[in-house]
Design goal:
With 287 residues, the chain is mainly α. It is 72% helix and 0% strand. The radius of gyration is 19 Å and the shape is globular.
Length: 287
């Protein structure tokens, strides 16, 4: 199996919404974004699959070294072998790749966030910086597109946090800021024990509004000149925003189940957004 085939397999097996947004890219850009996505999955799996934090730290330290080796020599891992040819053409910097790994290290250091400022920092490491890297692959001419990419990444991460409240709680994690729980009088123990309530629904509505605000600010920041190039990001936004709406229609029952969209619906949303250039989605989110 070649490095590119390894990355493609990683992307397909994940079932992620990102895979559907990549389908319509030209071959070289598709290879680059698939390799970047596979890198993110690999380092994320370190934290999810290692029960011993000390082992996870060693593995993440190895990934830091692999990134350095990619820029100074030949990396050992097929993901970085696949990513290496694209670093210069698409401005994939070591600093940003290290920032992605640092986000995974944050998961080893803390399982709660006191306020939005702390969670916002985590969201940048987990998704905002990935948005910036992706924007470079898709192509842009205006630096404001990086503002759009960061905000869109944060919106995606907030949507993930809302969707995964129950799954995270079963791992002993609560990403929702403590100050938000206090505002709505929701105890951490209620989330950890999957206790749904009207107060929890109000909390989820509050978090969803924050996510919507980031979707709105993202599309407002996207320069018209770069919109066509950024269609993959807008396709992802269409999928993620539809997921957020689906969770709301389900009355925020995320403690006991993981809400998801069907593959055909993801494909349809991605294709429709790609063909339209995202105009309808931009109008809708900008309201």
């Amino acid at each position: 199996m070649s490095p590119d085939e390894y990355c493609q397999t990683k992307a397909v097996q994940s079932g992620s919404s990102f895979y559907y947004a990549f389908l319509f890219l030209p071959p070289e850009k598709r290879k680059a974004i698939t390799a970047l996505y596979a890198f993110c999955r690999e380092v994320d799996d370190v934290v999810d699959e290692c029960s011993d934090p000390s082992v996870a730290r060693v593995k993440l330290a190895w990934w830091h070294k692999q990134v350095e080796q990619m820029y100074s020599g030949k990396p050992d891992h097929p993901v970085l072998q696949a990513l290496q040819p694209h670093t210069e053409p698409y401005d994939i910097t070591a600093e940003r790749l290290h920032a992605v790994i640092a986000g995974m290290e944050m998961d080893l250091d803390q399982s709660r966030y006191l306020d939005w400022a702390g969670l916002r920092k985590y969201c940048w490491h987990a998704a905002g910086v990935v948005g910036e890297l992706s924007a470079g692959i898709f192509g842009y001419s205006n630096a404001d597109t990086l503002v759009y990419a960061d905000k869109l990444g944060v919106a995606f991460q907030l949507t993930n946090i809302i969707r995964d409240v129950g799954d995270d709680a079963r791992r002993g994690r609560i990403y929702l800021p403590v100050e938000d729980l206090q505002q709505f009088d929701v105890k951490a123990s209620e989330i950890l024990n999957s206790q749904h309530s009207d107060r929890f629904e109000s909390l989820m509505q509050f978090e969803a509004q924050r996510a919507r605000q980031y979707y709105r600010e993202a599309v407002q920041a996207l320069p018209e000149a770069d919109r066509r190039h950024q269609r993959p990001g807008l396709a992802m936004a269409a999928i993620y925003f539809a997921l957020l709406e689906e969770i709301e229609r389900d009355n925020w029952h995320v403690l006991e189940q993981r809400v998801s969209l069907t593959p055909i619906r993801k494909f349809w949303l991605a294709w429709k957004t790609w063909v339209s250039g995202g105009r309808g989605l931009v109008r809708r989110l900008a309201r």
